[in-house]
Design goal:
By secondary structure, the protein is an all-alpha fold. Helices cover 78% and strands 0% of the residues. Helix 3 runs antiparallel to helix 4.
Length: 241
């Protein structure tokens, strides 16, 4: 029995490593094709409207596709060797762009969308129930809500007029980076949070939605950064021992 236990654990770990490698390859291919689709929409979107879902504003939606594909690419890069509740966040980072970009780039998103959906599903399938349960903590819910705010900024930017469009997309990308920055540098996280909310909210002050999302993002972001700082300050169990 003492041999069977470690052998079984090793087999499970090996299976997960294989599935993660497959998910990584699918995710890398999907994210790369998604970035290419975004640039195609930017460059020749008006000439292939049937392929981009009949979109009129191909510039903004192209940039939105590129940004969300880069989010998926970051999730792929974060997958290697990850265990525990982080896997759920990685799966979300693959699945959300996969689903949202079906509305931004039309048929061009079919191949990358299917690849990213498959990658996210494989990551979730290789995640244990206790790891999924551990993801449903207050800290992770705060980060998830902040990510939703960032995605809202990207979509609002994609539909905004004039120069506020790229500003909104960039703002969304900055807000999306806050949870990751918070665990490394609270100051950098605060800089990204404020730079990602205040300028776009000021530029679209006449809209009730954008300032409201900005206020919500700042409140949630403050909580994310504060809890990340507390986690860094708290000694680990090994340090306590």
């Amino acid at each position: 029995m003492s041999i069977a236990g470690p052998a079984t654990s090793a087999a499970v770990a090996a299976d997960r490593e294989r599935s993660d490698r497959l998910a990584g390859r699918l995710g890398l291919a999907g994210a790369s094709l998604g970035i290419i689709a975004g640039f195609l929409e930017l460059d020749i979107g008006p000439d292939i409207r049937d392929w981009v879902g009949g979109k009129l504003d191909t510039t903004r939606l192209g940039w939105a596709t590129i940004i969300l594909s880069m989010v998926a690419l970051a999730a792929v890069r974060a997958l290697r060797g990850r265990t525990g509740r982080d896997r759920v966040g990685i799966a979300i980072g693959l699945l959300v762009p996969a689903l949202v970009c079906f509305t931004t780039v039309g048929r061009l998103w079919y191949p990358p969308g299917v690849l990213l959906l498959a990658a996210g599903a494989i990551v979730l399938a290789g995640t244990r129930r206790d790891e999924i349960a551990a993801a449903y903590t207050a800290d992770h819910w705060r980060a998830a809500l902040l990510i939703i705010c960032g995605a809202c900024f990207v979509l609002l930017g994609a539909s905004a007029p004039g120069l506020t469009a790229p500003l909104g997309i960039l703002s969304g990308a900055l807000v999306l980076s806050v949870p990751r920055l918070a665990s490394r540098s609270p100051r950098a996280a605060w800089a990204a949070l404020l730079a990602g909310t205040l300028p776009f909210a000021a530029a679209t002050w006449w809209s009730a939605v954008t300032p409201l999302v900005a206020v919500i993002a700042i409140v949630i972001g403050n909580s994310v950064i504060r809890h990340a700082r507390s986690a860094r300050a708290s000694p680990s169990p090994a340090e306590k021992a």
